[in-house]
Amino acid sequence: MSCTETLREQGYRLTPQRLMILSTIHGSDHHISAEEIYEQVHAKYPQVNISTVYRTLELLKEPSLVTETDLGGGKLRYHSLENGHHHHLICRKCRQIFELDEAVLKPVEGTILRKYGFKPDLSHLAVFGNCVECRR
Is residue 135 part of a domain? Predict the structure, then answer.
């Protein structure tokens, strides 16, 4: 089911602002900040303000249409789950970001469920540490 179908099914109005924000997130080839979303949407639709972007992001996080991830650097980043989920290893020293294969997390998910009776949402994860180059 698409983001727009999910929102409509849950009784949310599909305002032009929401559709533009969704389109901007979905069309981004990287994780995008609220400020970047605002700049792109505001350029096409000057009536949109930053608070509309933040409210819409909160709305989109609730039904898990968008993930919010701290990739470091002091800004939260957003990613459409329609674009698939993936995971990151982030070096604290050089700030390089590596993709983490989802298969690595399957045993962790099972262990958390068995040991704690807790079903983790591992659809989007950022793990901080130091890369091999920075550990030398």
Answer: no
Determine the pLDDT at residue 29: 80
Would you call 119 helix, strand, or coil by DSSP?
Answer: coil
In a domain, 59, yes or no: yes
C-alpha distances in angstroms, 117 versus 60, 103, 133? 27, 21, 37
**In angstroms, rounded to a whole number, what is the distance separating the alpha carbons of residues 102 and 85?**
9
Report how far residue 101's alpha carbon sits from residue 16's, in angstroms, rounded to the nearest whole number.
Answer: 36
Q: Between vectors from CA 67 to CA 98 and to CA 10, what angle results, nearest 5°?
A: 155
If asked whether residues 30 and 77 sit together in one domain, one would say yes
Compute how many other C-beta atoms are within 10 angstroms of the C-beta atom of residue 21: 27
Global pTM value: 0.70
Tell me if 49 sits within 8 A of 37, measured CB to CB.
no
Percent of the chain with pLDDT over 70: 96
- SS3 for 54-82 is HHHHHHHHCCCCEEEEECCCCCEEEEEHH
Which of 22-36, 59-73, 101-115 is least confident? 59-73
Place of tokens 């997130």: 25
